[in-house]
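Hi support team,

I submitted a single chain yesterday and got back a structure, but I'm not sure I'm reading the token output correctly. Could someone confirm the output below corresponds to the sequence I sent? I've pasted both exactly as they appear in my results page.

Thanks,
R.
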Amino acid sequence: MSQLKKDSKPLPSAVSVLIVDDEPGMRSFLKKALSKKFALVETAASVEDAEQLRSRCHFDLLIVDIRLPGRSGIEWHEAIDDQERRSDIIFMTGYADMDVAIRALRAGASDFIMKPFHLEQMMKAVDRCIERRLLKRENLMLRREVSIGQSSTIIGSSDAMQEVKHVIERVAPTNAVILIEGESGTGKELVARQLHLLSGRQGPFVPVNCGAIAPDLLESELFGHSAGAFTGAKGSREGLFSFASGGTLFLDEIGEMPLKMQTALLRVLEQRTIRPVGSEKEIKIDVRVLAATNRRLAEEVEQGNFRRDLYYRLNVLDIVIPPLRERPEDVVELTHHFTLQLAAELGVKEVVWSHEDMLKLQQYSWPGNIRELRNMIERCILLGKPPAEYWKQQPKSESSNESGYPLDWSLKEVEKHHVMQVVDIHQGNKSAAARDLGVSRKTLDRKYKEWFSTHKEEEN
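Hi R., thanks for writing in. Yes, this is the structure output for that exact sequence:
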């Protein structure tokens, strides 16, 4: 067997490989060669030994001999649940059987190598497998980016937004952790995307809403898990930190993160390593972390709801996005932008905004900020009615303030009215409404239950 060429293409070091072969010499030979390139290389003499290793650790690549004691490599491969199998596999055999080779390839093998082989032949097969795996990961993240369908352009020429843009341009090329603060609907994720776009980082932008994931699943979602780490974890899974390798992880609504996870996140930010749930292996990461919140984290710290040390670690630099009511001069620009964008997306004619309409848009307080403005414009376009019709539908009262809500309404009544409006805009789709409102679907269902159960009790 020849020696590996020095100009062999370098691969990411954080790759794990499992070699399954009943020949000790072959296991030793491949482990020695692959350990020079990859972070974790394990060996097993049988399917049973391999299963024990897989139950404790996820492997990106399996190199498996077809003829193994007790159970063949192909039978083992075919028995693994397709939905849980995340490892690529290369089969080896010393028997030139075309039917076996065809069966192996039909079972989903990435490659099929005859023994004896040159090391260079095996390494080229490994290169192809890992490159395909990385390409799949990139395609997954690109599909996620396209599905969001949002422009990365920040709209607004007010002094406040010009300052935000200036800060973004200055700090984007750095690797600094940045905290983005602002009310729901002000565009915190858009700012995070702009920071990623201008950073020059080649990896993907991966957003995650910390408040939309069940607390007991958040650790697995971020760090990944090994098979058997908890009930229902039939296979290993990579976390969002791994998906964001070389790129940016955006932790939206960081104030919703449980205290236990705050401790784990602080450790990651300090040590730049993650440990999947149920694994003893530390994995180095190259990920920039951006965080956002609509809460006042300084107050949350004083109340004991947020770790002080994590707050200081996140708040090295903060970007505060002002609410739309504090920059009415941006409303006109945003309105024109969304009108053109939504009309093109929906395939319908644009609405025409009169001078009177624009004045009313600027006078409205926009409690839902840019998200509410966009939804209102979309509603006007879909209904095909002139903008004046929308204002006629707003609640009117002799004691109403400029936001359209009666001054004698309680905060609970204002919240209920706004939530119902957003749900109505989405034609009863509570999941979509929850995303726009910046809360979880569970929170929205709880509020509905609270409001309408109280209403029924009052009727009775």
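A quick pointer for reading it: The chain is about 50% helix and 10% strand. Let us know if anything else looks off.

Best,
Support desk
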